[in-house]
Structure formats: C-alpha cells, structure tokens
Amino acid sequence: MLIQMLENEYWYGGCVSDGTRMPVGPEDSFEVQLDPNPTPNQAMPLFVSSKGRYLWRDTGFAIRFERGVIHVPEDVTLEGGFKTLQGAYLAAMERHFPFKPITLSPALLEKPIFNSWIELTFHQNERDLLEYAGNIISNGFEPGVLMIDDGWSEYYGNWSFHSGKFPNAKEFIDKLHEMGFQMMLWVCPFITPDTVAYREARNQDLLIKTAEGKPYICEWWNGYSAVLDFSNPEAVAWFDRQLQTLQELGIDGFKFDAGDSIYYREDLVTYGNVLPNEQSRLWAEYGQKYALNEYRVTFRAGGYSLFQRLCDKEHSWGDKGIAALVPDSLLQGITGHPFSCPDMVGGGEYLNFQQLEDNGLDEELFCRHSEIACLMPSIQFSAAPWRVLSSEHLAIIHRHLALRSQYATSIEEGFEAAVNSGEPMIRYMEYQFPGEGFERVTDQFMLGDRILVAPIYEKGQVSREVSIPRGRWLFDGNIIESNGETQMLSPEPGMPIVLELQTES
C-alpha cells in the first residue's frame, strides 16, 4: 500500500532506538523491518503523525518512507482525522493498546535506583554488595530500589542464590531491608545446558524446540543456553515457583533481561506455535505481576504495567551515548511506554565503560547524563558516583537530585496521568504545542504540560538554544514572554534549563 504524506506531516514510531532518526518528514528516507524487532530495545507496530493520523498492525511489518510516500503492507491500518500528534496517539492507544491496570510501584520513580552491574559485573557477592549499599548511604544518597544484576545465581535456570557468593542469603536480604532498600534481582528466560534445571525443564517439555524436536540452544551475549517457552503455561508455572521462593526470602521484585526477538527463530517449535515477536511479548507480559520490574527490550508492550529502560548506551557524547537519551525517551512515550528510564547514568555498556575508565572517565559527560535523567520519570545509577567523580562533580550530582526533589510533585502527577490516561510522562514539544513548528525539536521535552526541560548534551557547552512555545514562562526567576521563538539560554553551571509555563491571571 502506498500512502501519500500530507503537507508538513511528520511521523514518529516503530523502534525506540531510532529516536534520533525521528521524526520522518516529507523530504526524508527511512525504513525499518519490525518483524521481528531487530533492536535491543522496545518496539511497537505503530507510527503516529503530527497531522493526526496513525499506522498500526498487530504484528510487526516493514515500512519505508521515501520522500513523501509511505510504503507498507496492504493489511496495515491507516486512520486519520485526529488533528494532532496527541489526538493520533490517544486514538491509537484507546483502540489498539489500551493501558492495562497499572500496578507498578512508584518506588521506581520516587528515589534514585542503584544497580550493581558496573561496579561488580558478573562478580555479584554478599560482601561487596553490602559495601556498595553502605556507600550509597554514607555518600548522601537516599536508599531506594537496589538492583542486583547478573551473576548472583547458581546458574541460569536455577534461580537461587549462589551458595559460595551468598553464604547467608536471608541475613543478607534482611540487612539491606534494614538499611532502607527494596531489592530486585536480575533474571532471564535462559537455562544453562547440561544442568539439573535443564534436564528437569527438558523432561517436562518446557523448552523451545527445533523442528527436529530437540531443545533449541540459543547463542546470546553470555554464551549458549536453552530457552524457556513462555507460551507454555507449565513453563510459566515452573518459573513462577522459583521466583516465589525468592519472594519468600524477602526479594521485592525482578529485572527481566533478554527476551529479545532476535534470539528466537520462526522455524522453532513452541507450545503456542508463536513467532519471535510474540515470544518476546509473552516474556514482557509475564513481568506485570510484579510491582517492581524492569525490562530493556519488549515488543508490543505499550500500555503494559512495566518499567522500561533504554538499552545500554556508550559513555560518549554522540548518538550512541547521551545525545540519544532525550530522543529515545520521547519515542518511548509516544509508543506507549511512559514509565521509562534513560539507561544507567554514565552509560550501561560495561565493556565500553571499563575501557574508558582505565584511561580516565569524562566526568563532565557523567554529570550531563545525570542532568538529562534528573527530570525524567526515573534516574538510575550503576557506576558509583563517589568512586568515579571528584568531590566537585559529585556535588553536581547531588544538586541534580535536589532539583528532582523540587519537581517531585510534577513527576508524581505525570505518573498518575500516565496511569489514568496513558499519556506520556515526558512529551514531544509537538505533542504539547501542536502547529507551532516544533515537529523536529527532539532534544528538549515537556514534563507534563507545564514544565519545559532543555538539558545540555554537548561537551564544553554552558548554554544552548531553546525552542519556547507561545506564552509566559518563568526561567531563573525571570518572566520570558515568548511568541514561539528560539532563545539562547544559560542555566546554572552543570544544571538543565527548566522553564515553567505560567497560568494566565
């Protein structure tokens, strides 16, 4: 099917990791194949336009924009008449992915999250984790959610604490609770081959199989593993029992990793006869039963009660690093994933991070990532700021968190609005101010409908241009009367530019 783009029409959607390539306008060329999801981040079979139209298909599809013409399969739904980007999004959401009952814990937004990955990588252990937790508090950070990452368990598929690394698991959990932390553990749908858990899952027919009827062995970033079939209710129950045992120990929630569509194949045999994107969606659907959850990659999980993080970013200034944080996060919101996290501050790509750390991290870059994250739905640290930063830069991080506390009510209101209406917590300028020429503005955002945030994301910069919608705005104690122009503004050193829309008296 060929669709002619309207005059001055701009489209947003598809894969969250394409945020820096959005929007697609009449003069642009862009294509993506959504079946299966080719990326390590969220994807939705949805595109919405600034002129109040949307494209949708329940399954993934190929789409190509070619200088004013959109090429899609014949069975893709095209609907229009909704006037604005907001109208198109709300119509698509209500008809195709209405929000589930949201039971997500506000704890993921209220305080900074700490994740043990960068500090310990695969060497998670009781002693070092208690030291990490103690240092969080002693360095002036509030205890909140603490995620223990990959490496804590006996092996994949046996989700119990490694007896050598955690000789006193219950006592360890109790100590962290006493310190004020809620605890989440990293899990995945993989099972280490030739283990007791593997043989048990194989004998109970809980694994994805090849066409020859043998367990499918998947190659992923940590090696080779069998894969649990989440289209099989018995496999879900088997996994349930293990997580329930951990909850009985005191674990509060789980970080659900992997489940990428690319790790499944169309020719595999599953209980529900499902394709790769559907297997990925089922893994995402599973996590909704936990109030504390986190996902990095999903397919068609817009509207789910999930906390969804951007994929690991490099410790760099460009589109593979912090320049992608605002564009990707905005695309999360417009595709139905409002409860989001802009990766771990400083970058979550641990090999990249470790290589750079050996030569000295860019402390300005680390702080700018924190600046970008501090007024987003959540902020998550992994590399210990007190270890990698000077006292001067550590103080900047605390100023970011103080600013976040200042706008806690706005963040809370944004969460409640997303729960009740499905609207994004952070929004494109075009979403909130249609028709003012902001279609291509993707490096600043609205927190709700009144707070404009424009962080600095280029090295050495102390000011930046800000696109200011029409109206009266409060900035740094002064009123700006805007007719919709762009102005060069300078914030306090190390801080984001924040403007508040003033109510007309």
Written description of the protein model:
The chain has 505 residues and is an alpha+beta fold. The protein is 29% helix and 22% strand. The protein contains 15 helices and 30 strands. The strands form 8 sheets. Strands 18-17-13-10-9-22-21 form a 7-stranded parallel sheet. A 6-stranded antiparallel sheet has the order 23-24-25-30-27-28. A hairpin with a 3-residue loop joins strand 24 (445-447) and strand 25. Helix 11 (363-373) packs parallel to helix 13. It is globular and about 70 Å long. The mean pLDDT is 96.
Layout of strands and helices, then pairs:
Elements lengths: L1 E3 L6 E5 L13 E5 L9 E7 L4 E3 L5 E5 L2 E3 L5 E3 L5 H12 L10 H4 L2 E3 L1 H4 L5 H13 L6 E4 L4 E3 L2 E4 L7 H10 L3 E6 L2 E2 L4 H8 L13 E4 L2 E5 L5 H17 L3 E4 L19 H11 L6 E3 L12 E2 L15 H10 L5 E2 L2 E2 L4 H9 L4 H11 L6 E2 L3 H4 L2 H16 L1 H14 L4 E2 L1 H4 L12 E3 L3 E4 L9 E4 L3 E5 L2 E5 L3 E4 L7 E5 L4
Helix pairs in contact: 11-13
